Amino acid sequence: MTDRLRFGAFIAPFHALDENPTLAIERDLDLVVLMDRLGYDEAWIGEHHSAGYELIASPELFIATVAERTKRIRLGTGVSSLPYHHPLMLADRINQLDHITRGRVMFGVGPGALPSDAFMMGIPVAKQRDRMDEALDVLVPLLRGETVTKTTDWFTLNEARLQMTPYSRPSVEIAVASQVSPTGASAAGRHGVGVLSIGATQAGGFNALATNWAIAEEAARDAGRTMDRSQWRLVGPMHVARTTEEARAQVRHGIEQWLYYFREVAALPLAPQDGSDPVDSLVNSGMAVVGNPDEAAAQIARLQEQSGGFGAYLTLDTNWADWADKTASYELIARHVMPRFQGSNTNRDASLRWAADNRPRFIGEAQKAVGARVAQHVAQKGTDNIRPEILAAMGLDKKPEAAE
Fold first, then answer.
1. Which residues form the Luciferase-like domain (predicted)?
2. Would you state the pLDDT for residue 404?
3. 3-class SS at 269?
4. Which sequence spans correspond to the domains of the chain?
5. What's 83's DSSP letter?
């Protein structure tokens, strides 16, 4: 594990159908700009083409736009659905972004999350993971500037290479999406690239964290590569307010619409079916944090213990709260959670304790210095020309002559 845990967001995004989609995308851009100002390290942007909630079709276009508005935050595709793209075209676009952003782009990859996307393109859902593996096999060398020839049942490469040498050497950073199954971890290990654990806080994903990392390490050893925990990113939903009560009240704004999407469209078992409170269910299961900064920090510490160490925590951006409360949550995390895992106040704390521990010595030295100046002043001016109240403040209620 790295000494400084990085922080970021995984922005699908999720936007309910009761608002202006143009303004929704603009707020996503504004969010990344805010994160850049607050000192977040990374923002990952999704790719989706159906179902109406996850509005961004091209993470590359989004990244190119927001790169112009930000200074230092790194920007990743979260994730590019590899079966949807010819590998050479995708590699060329990512390489161009690598140059445009001066190395700030990251390349997250996966098989595609929505079956409805694959259906519209005539891609068999059963083949999506195989096609992801086939694409990744050629994308890794392409993005390193190598020449590739390969034929599959869905793409052909004939002496394919990028026109421009990669800006990032040896390559743009690559990460493979992983949930419960070992598919993503195994692919990451074969190529020695990073892992994006999308469902790290879901029960299945949480329980599989250590196992999937072990699978990645084994696959890396078999391929003569190594894995780097600093390139392992864990994703989970988190909304923070100053108090737990405030946080729970704020997420009522949009959590039901979010749950509807996953229950009725994405078909993931996130919503309770027994009539219980959904916030209670998400919090008590460990899937989400809806609370104060201490509870957010406890969740990250829990993930560190379960995983054995990772490089970055990414908040799954949910739009549970309205815009003002949501941005306040990001600021509270930056102010009160991130420093605990980045050593930001280590020297400040040591300095404060050192000053407190040595206070008697420092006060004594200060008092002696003041006393010496008082004596010097009295010796030069005498006491006759000094007002009584000043003499009292100096501890000289009596004139030296009277005291003698």
1. 6-305
2. 43
3. coil
4. 6-349, 358-403
5. G
